[in-house]
């Protein structure tokens, strides 16, 4: 029969791994205003109250830099905004062109300022290459 100490010695590495993998590495920013850089699939935390996450580029039809187009085109991004007390968060769609560049949500104004990289005919953009700059303002 195994002693309680040997059972604990076998259980400790499993518990340690569970602890390590359950901890989410998160950088908590001090201010949720101004320009914010987000890479695709990245989450940013602002205190323990607010989290914003860049989920996807759902449409990319911007005119390539080395192309000739009759309009600038549009890219649409999907974000998730979560404030403490919202169980699942709120999905936000923002466009790089047109009226849907800015959204008013709770007491914030969120604007897509830039989506990078910009398309080129000679270059294929992979999902992991995308990043964006959001401008966030708190409103009363």
Task: Please describe the topology of this protein.
Blueprint: H1 4-22, E1 28-29, E2 34-39, E3 43-46, E4 50-60, E5 75-83, E6 90-95, E7 102-105, E8 108-116, E9 131-138
Parallel strand pairs: 1-3
Antiparallel strand pairs: 2-9, 3-4, 4-5, 5-6, 7-8, 8-9
Domain module tally = 1
How far from one another are the termini? 67 Å
Structural class per helix/strand content? mainly beta
| Mean pLDDT across all amino acids | 82
Please report the total strand number as a whole number: 9
Describe it for me?
The chain is mainly β. It has one domain (26-138): Tick-borne Encephalitis virus Glycoprotein, domain 1 (Sandwich). Helix content is 14%, strand content 42%. It is built from 1 helix and 9 strands. It has one helix at residues 4-22; strands spanning 28-29, 34-39, 43-46, 50-60, 75-83, 90-95, 102-105, 108-116, 131-138. A 5-stranded mixed beta sheet has the order 1-3-4-5-6, with no helix packed on it. A 4-stranded antiparallel beta sheet has the order 2-9-8-7, with no helix packed on it. The radius of gyration is 21 Å and the shape is elongated. 10% of the residues are buried.
């Amino acid at each position: 029969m195994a002693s309680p100490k040997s059972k604990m010695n076998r259980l400790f590495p499993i518990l340690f791994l569970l602890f390590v993998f359950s901890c989410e590495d998160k950088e908590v920013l001090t201010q949720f205003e101004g320009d914010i850089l987000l890479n695709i699939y990245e989450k940013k935390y602002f205190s323990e109250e607010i989290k914003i996450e860049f989920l996807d580029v759902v449409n990319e039809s911007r005119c390539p830099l080395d192309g000739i187009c009759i309009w600038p085109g549009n890219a649409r991004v999907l974000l998730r905004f979560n404030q403490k007390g919202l169980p699942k968060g709120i999905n936000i769609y923002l466009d790089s062109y047109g009226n849907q560049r800015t959204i008013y949500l709770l007491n914030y104004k969120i604007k897509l300022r830039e989506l990078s990289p910009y398309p080129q005919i000679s270059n294929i953009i992979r999902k992991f290459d995308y990043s964006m700059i959001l401008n966030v303002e708190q409103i009363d």
